[in-house]
Amino acid sequence: MGREKAAAGYRELGAAMRRIRQAAGLTGRQVARKTGWDPSRVSRIEWGQINIEVSELTWYLGIMRVDKEVALPLIDLCRRAKEDRGHWLSPHGEWVPDTLSSLIYHESKASVSIQYEPLLVPGLLQSEGYARALISRETWRKGADVDASVEVRLERQDVLARSDCSFVFYVHEHALNLEVGGPAVMYEQMVTLTLLSAAPNVDVHIVPNSAGERSVLGEAFGLFEFEDHSPLVHLDLFATTLWLEEPGFVEPYRGLLAGLADISVDAEESRSSFAALADKYERGSIAHADGKLEEK
């Protein structure tokens, strides 16, 4: 059954199938011969325009000799897409360190990305030291896993170079005053914010404490807009990510973002504040280092 607008789950699944085909060095016609599907069906599946049964996907993955650790998450994604509830959960898989393949995929396809973060600097704007301090607190991670997770988080920032996407971030003032990793790490983080927010397609707004209860919207969330598809909302939870696609679920978050735009500091003033905070943390870092020398 075809759709005018491809559902997010099937778009993500189709993209994964396309990567599998390309990694195998095959054309769509060659895959069609292997599967017995019409070449046009292969193309429409890869673009998420038609459904695929779990049994068909499992058969396809077998034919393409896909490893079990890659195949199982895709089969699970197919099941969730088929349920078509307008919302679904994505578990945090070990095969993509630190973040979800779902988030990376939809982030790379959006035409507008808007994020609200009440407690921490958003992942796309984090410096290496800040990201490492946060990831290292997860005591179950080993050293190599921490390194891999930090690398994935930093590589995600490449998406900010997309000229065809506008990125808007609303960062609560609390996140800027919460000292993560010490003054030196926070200095590096404020410099990173100052530099990244200068990009023409990136706007970072401070949500001020002075806005009181209007500045507190609960958990962090993001809204993705697409040129040819329905918008998506994602809420990153401790062990999973909740995705919302049903318009009735998405629209309340549009309202929250409209309210944030009314109370937030404009992008230029916010950038000046990041620079001022960098100076504050640099002085704190020097004082901290001097204190350690005196102790010796």
UniProtKB/TrEMBL annotation:
InterPro entries cross-referenced by the UniProt entry: Cro/C1-type_HTH (IPR001387), DUF5753 (IPR043917), Lambda_DNA-bd_dom_sf (IPR010982)
Pfam families registered for this protein in UniProt: DUF5753 (PF19054), HTH_31 (PF13560)
MF terms (GO), sorted A to Z: DNA binding
Domain of life: Bacteria
Domain HTH cro/C1-type: 17-57
Protein name in the entry: Helix-turn-helix protein
Taxonomic placement: Bacteria, Bacillati, Actinomycetota, Actinomycetes, Pseudonocardiales
